[in-house]
Write a structure and sequence with these properties.
heterodimer, A: seven-stranded mixed β-sheet, four-stranded antiparallel β-sheet, 11 strands, 0% helix, globular, B: mainly beta, seven-stranded mixed β-sheet, 58% strand
Amino acid sequence: DIQLTQSPSSLSTSLGDRVTITCRASQSITNYLNWYQQKPGEAPNLLIYAASTLRTGVPSRFSGRGSGTDFTLTISSLQPEDFAIYYCQQTYNNFRTFGPGTKVDMK
Amino acid sequence: QVQLQESGPGLVKPSQTLSLTCTFSGGSLWGDDYRWTWIRQHPEKGLEWIGYTSYTGSTYSNPSLKSRPIISMDKSKNQFSLELTSVTVADTAVYYCARDRGGHCSPTYCSFWAIDLWGQGTLVTVSS
């Protein structure tokens, strides 16, 4: 199976900060990498698919980059509604896997 | 408005079978570019992908669950289901049904897949 690691596991930030989360795959997954946001008590919500495509309706402060094994999710200027847990997911093969998550909270 | 809704018992005894149903409303389960998926989340933990079924009948489940998941579809009711056999307390989790959607698909290949629709999730507790 393809393992995904995320770093950092958590970060304390302030409003307006630029935030970057890294996801690394144990083998090349080309661009089959998605990012989800999950808030407490809610189901996850798709933000970015195919590594860098912003889902319709998602604010443009979110962006994704990468291919192969290394990927990043960037929030250009953190807003109050962005405090959440972020997960990456690979869909390169039939056995989909998620990263362990990165918790973004307030400093 | 398309939506998914999980239903099923919230309490299951150890060694029994957990059974959940997901009802899709506002659309059809038909289509080669959909994978109807189950995911779970243990309390205060991350997401674990369980498996999927498709309209054509193909299924795939997480190898680490050792053939315990059985995922099926009832096309007439626009529902798909999860049965998880021989449960233990370690199977206590919030269970989500979801739609994994392929994009830019040819007959044999989609250039991306992503979960674009989730149910609200249902907590299943395994306890005697």
